[in-house]
Design a protein that fits this description.
Length: 220
C-alpha cells in the first residue's frame, strides 16, 4: 500500500510540473540551436543553456520542497498510510524524476550538438562534467530545502551553489589535460575527467541521503 501511495505522490509532482518541464526543454533546445550558429551564437547559447538548467533546479526545489514545507500545504499526507521516511522518499524521488527528464533530454541534445556540428567532439566530456554538476547542485538544494524551513539557510545555499558553477567551470578548463582534450575531435575520458565524475556521483549520493539522516518527526 505504501509503495502505491509513494508512486502516486511522485506522479502528482510530475503532473504539477509538466508544463514547467516542457518549457525548460523548449528553452534548452532553443539555446542549443543558438549555440550551433557560430562562435558568438555558441557563447550566447551556452550561457542560456546553463541558466536554464540551473534556474530550473533552484525554482523546482524552492517551490516543490521548501514552500510546501513552510506553508504546510502537505498536511493532507497525514491522512495517508505513510511514515515520515516514506514521505521524504516520495518527495526526493518526485523532485529527482521531474528534474531528470529535462536534464536527460538537454544533456543528450548537447552531446548530439557536438557530434554533428564542426564544434570539437572533445567538448563532450567537459560538457558532461558541467551537466552532472548541475544535477549535483540541484540535489544539494533539494536536500537543504527538505531539511530546513529557514529562508536564510535556503537562500545562502542557493547563492553558494550558483556561485560554485563559475568556479567549477574555471577548475575544468583550468586543468591542462581537460582543456587540451576539449579542443580535439575525439572524446577523451582522461583520469581528471573520471575522477571529477566520481566525485560528483559521490556528492549526489550524499545529498540525496541527507534528508533521511536529518528528517524530523514534525517534518510534515
Amino acid at each position: 500500500m505504501s509503495n502505491r501511495t509513494i508512486a502516486r505522490l511522485i506522479a502528482k509532482d510530475f503532473h504539477l510540473n509538466r508544463w514547467f518541464m516542457a518549457g525548460v526543454v523548449v528553452s534548452g533546445l532553443v539555446s542549443l540551436l543558438i549555440a550551433s550558429t557560430g562562435r558568438v551564437g555558441f557563447n550566447i547559447g551556452s550561457v542560456s543553456f546553463i541558466t536554464t538548467l540551473v534556474a530550473f533546479g533552484v525554482i523546482l526545489a524552492m517551490y516543490g520542497c521548501f514552500t510546501e514545507r513552510k506553508e504546510k500545504t502537505a498536511l493532507f499526507v497525514l491522512s495517508l498510510p505513510l511514515s515520515t521516511a516514506e514521505y521524504v522518499k516520495a518527495k526526493v524521488l518526485g523532485m529527482l524524476t521531474v528534474y531528470l527528464v529535462p536534464w536527460t533530454i538537454l544533456t543528450g541534445g548537447a552531446v548530439v550538438l557536438f557530434l554533428v556540428t564542426p564544434i570539437p567532439d572533445g567538448m563532450v566530456t567537459p560538457t558532461l562534467l558541467l551537466s552532472v554538476f548541475y544535477l549535483a547542485i540541484f540535489c544539494v538544494v533539494v536536500a537543504v530545502t527538505l531539511s530546513t524551513t529557514s529562508e536564510a539557510v535556503a537562500s545562502i545555499t542557493i547563492i553558494l551553489t550558483n556561485m560554485s558553477v563559475t568556479f567549477f567551470m574555471f577548475a575544468i578548463f583550468g586543468n591542462s589535460t581537460i582543456a587540451q582534450d576539449a579542443k580535439g575531435d575525439v572524446v577523451v575520458w582522461s583520469a581528471p575527467v573520471l575522477t571529477l565524475l566520481a566525485g560528483e556521483a559521490f556528492c549526489i549520493a550524499l545529498a540525496l541521503a541527507l534528508p533521511f539522516l536529518f528528517r524530523k518527526r514534525d517534518y510534515i
